[in-house]
Design goal:
single chain; about 150 residues; alpha/beta; five-stranded mixed β-sheet; about 20% helix; globular; disordered N terminus
Length: about 150
């Protein structure tokens, strides 16, 4: 019985002390303007420029980073960078600002996604207006499904 109580106490203390909290922001701009030096947590952002626009996700704050690519790494007004948590062989064009509305030119956003992933998959959704994309060997452009993903020149 003593072993069970000791195990429960260790489990409770390690969980409570090692727990990481999540700070939520509506947009990347909100996270950009926040003082993240005091956060020491994971960050969840609901959208790139508006909630549910496909550009949100899980991030963390890196106080020593200085680079940015405006898709997986973003600056902060107080210094450091907000970095997206993602598998290195997969990115979504929406993370880089692709509107996928059939009207707005998504070339720069999709090209940034291609350049960032290096070798892997760039996920697309909707109708993307593009011109002069440079698709390197090892890049796969993949639609969310076969019925609603189009590249339009």
């Amino acid at each position: 019985m003593k072993q069970l109580i000791a195990f429960a106490a260790i489990l409770f203390c390690s969980t409570a002390l090692g727990q990481r909290y999540v700070k939520t922001f509506n947009t990347l701009n909100d996270a950009y303007n926040a003082n993240l030096k005091d956060v020491h947590t994971n960050i969840f952002i609901l959208g790139r420029s508006s909630a549910s626009d496909g550009g949100g996700g899980m991030f963390y704050y890196d106080s020593s980073s200085t680079s940015t690519n405006l898709g997986t790494v973003f600056g902060n007004v107080y210094g450091g960078r907000v970095k997206r948590v993602y598998p290195s062989s997969y990115v979504e064009a929406a993370w880089f600002g692709a509107k996928s509305d059939g009207v707005t030119d998504a070339t720069a956003a999709i090209q940034s996604a291609i350049d960032t992933v290096g070798y892997g998959t760039v996920q697309l959704e909707g109708t993307n207006v593009v011109s002069n994309l440079v698709i390197k060997k090892g890049i796969v452009l993949k639609g969310h499904n076969k019925w609603n993903t189009t590249l339009k020149a």
